[in-house]
Amino acid sequence: MRITANGLNIHLEVRGTGKPVVCLHGFSENLGTWDDIDLAGFRLILVDLPGHGSTEKPFALQPYRLPTLLETLHDLTQQLELVQYSVIGYSMGGRIALAYALQYPQEIAKLIMESASYGECGELSREKRRKDDAVLAEDIRQNGIEWFESYWSGLELFKTQARLPEKVRAQIRQRRLQNEPYALANTLLGSGQGTFPCLKDRVAELTMPVLFISGELDPKYQKISREFSHLNARIIRQTISGAGHNTHLEDPQTFRAVVSEFLSA
């Protein structure tokens, strides 16, 4: 299914029936990452984010910048005639989901963040991340998508995925290889951690039910999970045992159960 939202051709899939849930994937992924996540009683709206999957991949940087990205997603929900809907976001998609929920709180029934952050805070940290993102963006442009896939899959963050079945790992690799180097570079420069705003001081503004999911074997996001709950006591934390950064791929059965329980409550 394709919809032109905010001037951009967006690819999405709608699965199931019931209350709507918009699902946002992570960096270099696409909506195929949710293939094992079917939720009875809910209508999943799986979106390929700009520059990813089969959604348009503009050469200009503006469509990748967060304010424009939020406008595009909101235009999409309006065209789908969604009134009250939940949002699930993984990693980069979780950051975007957080920003979206803060921008359009009256429309969000529930928010689920999986292994996501509130952005880099502190000017020194932000400047370092901007520089790191710029270097990686240039490396991707210069070295190509095969190089990126090898580099990205080798990160410490994803080491637990080595235990996944070969079929699943092959699917992850294939989704990454479907990307265009310039689009990934633009994503990093437009809405990567270095340019993404620090939303730490705004987490307390969230009044809708919020669930933060992280993997037991992902210490960085276990810490961030605790920080979120300290910033807003209403946020529910859920740790998935034996999983790393991408809990919905590493333990889809538990992920489905946790999400279903939260959305159904």
Could you characterize the architecture of this molecule?
The chain is of the alpha/beta class and 265 residues long. It has a single domain (2-120, 197-264), classed as Alpha/Beta hydrolase fold, catalytic domain (Rossmann fold). 42% of the residues lie in helices and 18% in strands. It has an eight-stranded mixed sheet with strand order 1-2-4-3-5-6-7-8, sandwiched between helices. Helix 6 (219-231) links the parallel strand 7 (210-215) and strand 8. Helix 1 crosses helix 2 (92-103). The radius of gyration is 17 Å and the shape is globular. It starts with a strand and ends with a helix.
For the record, the count of structural domains works out to: 1
Cα-to-Cα separation, first versus last residue: 30 Å
Main pleated sheet: 8 strands, mixed
Coarse structural class: alpha/beta
Identify the notable features of this structure and list them briefly.
265 residues, 42% helix, alpha/beta, globular, 8-stranded mixed β-sheet, 8 helices, Rossmann fold, 8 strands, 18% strand, single chain
Question: How would you summarize this macromolecular structure in one to three sentences?
Answer:
This protein has helices spanning 66-79, 92-103, 123-153, 166-177, 181-191, 219-231, 247-250, 252-264; strands at 2-5, 8-15, 19-24, 42-47, 85-90, 108-114, 210-215, 236-240.
SSE diagram, text form:
Blueprint: E1 2-5, E2 8-15, E3 19-24, E4 42-47, H1 66-79, E5 85-90, H2 92-103, E6 108-114, H3 123-153, H4 166-177, H5 181-191, E7 210-215, H6 219-231, E8 236-240, H7 247-250, H8 252-264
Parallel strand pairs: 3-4, 3-5, 5-6, 6-7, 7-8
Antiparallel strand pairs: 1-2, 2-4
